[in-house]
From TrEMBL:
One of its GO terms (cellular component) is membrane. It comes from Flammeovirga aprica JL-4. This is SpoIIE family protein phosphatase. Pfam families: PilJ, SpoIIE. Residues 226-282 form a coiled coil. It is a multi-pass membrane protein.
Length: 553
């Protein structure tokens, strides 16, 4: 390279600089391509997550409209609701297929991951059942023809909603993973860029400067040789002048070349340094913006979590402390595992001189909305049992049903289809009898034979009813002795999905688990039940709130 540079240093230096600048340009372009690619994917991810989240709302809207169609009292009302129902079904189904197949016409280009594809395969049965029932409803002309289809929609809506939540979270998780990946790529490209600058300075600019220096030294040496020739040609004044002029001109050209090369080199180095600084400032600004967004999300999430956690404390303060209840019995336990931070299951206890009232209730749904129902149920029970002094279990449930329905619907223009299932026992210590009445929840009683006897409650629920039927609650009487046990529970334990077949735990397994631990102290029995539940659940999400209250008389 030096030999060629001595012949033409300007061209050689220009070629070296073009190579170096091209490498930096390619790295900058690659970085921009990566960033723009991620921004485009983020826009698509945002739309996918938005439509996925909207599916949850649409599935709930379908269930609500189906129930309204079931209760439509005249053909005109039925037709109006059915038009809205048809619009929602069309949007819901097109969104489902758009997300599943990533249809370009919905601006959902790209492909789902293998995990999300498997999730869509898992949700397909619920979707097909709901869609099939919806199509039959749209072909019907009267509300009395669609009872079976409405039940089919309600039966599949909960599972569809849960799995759609999982799909939405998976979309968000994959989007976040891509952002982390591009951050890593960006850091790698920055490192390569800085390394390239160092290598260019060491292998291109440094040799070029050395070659220029050698060129100048060779030029000076040639000038000295010319001066020596000039001394040898003193006899010829004309040649002397010619040699001197030639030497002067050569030195002047060499000086001008050196000045030009140094000036060009300084300008190009300054320009490249400015470009690197601008790129670093751009990367720093993007990093700062991402950190600010992450901080805002973390703050918002913490505020919501803190509010719900505080609501849990308020709920416990209203419903009563576990230890105060358990101290009223010989032994006992309360197993309470909310699906979310705050629970939709609750227990209620009240004691008079001769009677003890114990209730376990399961409100519709779970989370914050169901927690509101627990407060309403607690207030109504206080009024009925404590204030009005109603003592008969079936009268208590009948009055609770009437007051809850009135509170939720008589003052509202739209019906509220929320309620609760519960089991109620009234324990008379003097007469040694237990009176039980249940609304879709049983009581498990264990006598001297150490075997569980299940006493089923009424098939009616408290509050809303999907059909216009007269509700009836009966009272069952049980004689007991000291040491007998009884258990009240919500349906969360038996409805948990898990095991090798990813199926429900079921009531028979719950009874079997209680039987196996019947000779244990109540606290140890509680720990065993918790272990059985966690092992069955495995890595699955918790299906519903879990509440079991067991006491020894």
């Amino acid at each position: 390279m030096n030999k060629y540079l001595l012949k033409n240093p300007k061209k050689r230096f220009t070629a070296s600089y073009v190579i170096a600048l091209s490498i930096i340009a390619l790295l900058s372009i690659a970085s921009q391509i990566v960033i723009r690619s991620v921004l485009n994917k983020q826009e698509k991810d945002a739309r996918v997550i938005n439509i996925s989240g909207r599916q949850r709302m649409l599935s709930q809207k379908i269930s609500k409209l189906a129930l309204q169609l079931d209760r439509a009292e005249d053909p005109g009302e039925f037709g109006t609701i059915k038009k809205e129902f048809a619009t929602i079904i069309d949007l819901w189904s097109s969104s489902h297929y758009g997300l599943r197949d990533r249809l370009p016409e919905m601006e959902l280009q790209g492909e789902n991951s293998e995990t999300i594809q498997q999730m869509f395969e898992g949700i397909s049965q619920n979707f097909d059942q709901m869609f099939e029932a919806s199509q039959k409803i749209l072909k019907s002309s009267n509300s009395y023809e669609i009872d079976v289809q409405v039940s089919q929609i309600l039966r599949n809506e909960g599972s569809f909603l849960k799995q759609m939540n999982t799909i939405t979270f998976q979309y968000d998780h994959e989007s976040t993973a891509r952002i982390q990946q591009v951050k890593l790529i960006e850091m790698i490209l920055l490192g390569i860029t800085l390394l390239s600058i160092f290598l260019e300075a060491f292998f291109i600019f440094r040799p070029a400067v050395i070659a220029v220096d050698r060129y100048l030294r060779e030029t000076i040496n040639r000038g000295l040789a010319l001066r020596e020739a000039h001394d040898n040609l003193l006899a010829s004044e004309e040649k002397k002048e010619s040699v001197q002029k030639e030497l002067y001109e050569q030195l002047e050209k060499n000086h001008e070349l050196q000045v030009n090369i140094n000036r060009d080199l300084e300008l190009k180095i300054n320009e490249r340094t400015r470009e690197i600084q601008e790129k670093n400032e751009e990367i720093l600004a993007q990093s700062t913006e991402l950190k600010s967004q992450n901080d805002l999300l973390a703050t918002a999430n913490q505020k919501v979590t803190d509010s719900i956690t505080y609501a849990t404390k308020l709920q416990y303060s209203i419903l009563g402390y576990r230890q105060n209840i358990l101290e009223s019995f010989k032994d006992g336990f309360i197993l309470n595992k909310p699906k979310d931070i705050i629970s939709g299951d609750f227990y209620w206890y009240y004691q008079t001189e001769d009677l003890r009232f114990l209730i376990v209730a399961d409100c519709t749904g779970h989370g914050v909305s169901a927690a509101f129902m627990t407060i309403i149920g607690n207030l109504l029970l206080n009024d009925i049992i404590v204030n009005q002094q109603i003592k008969s279990p079936n009268d208590i449930l009948s009055l609770l049903d009437m007051e809850l329905y009135s509170l939720m619907n008589l003052r509202n223009s739209q019906k509220v289809y929320d309620g609760m299932d519960l089991g109620l026992v009234v324990i008379n210590e003097h007469q040694r009898i237990i009176e039980f009445s249940g609304a879709k929840r049983p009581v498990y009683f264990v006598g001297a034979d150490n075997k569980i006897n299940k006493i089923a409650g009424s098939k009616s629920t408290i509050g809303y009813s999907s059909k216009n039927i007269k509700k009836s609650f009966q009272t069952e009487t049980i004689n007991y002795q000291g040491g007998d046990r009884l258990y009240l529970s919500s349906d969360g334990f038996q409805d948990q999905f898990g095991g090798n077949t990813n199926s429900k735990f079921m009531q028979n397994r719950l009874i079997e688990s209680l039987n196996r631990t019947m000779n244990y102290p109540m606290e140890k029995q509680k720990k065993v039940l918790e272990g059985v539940f966690d092992k069955w659940k495995g890595n699955n999400a918790q299906t519903d709130d879990v509440l079991i209250v067991g006491v020894e008389l």
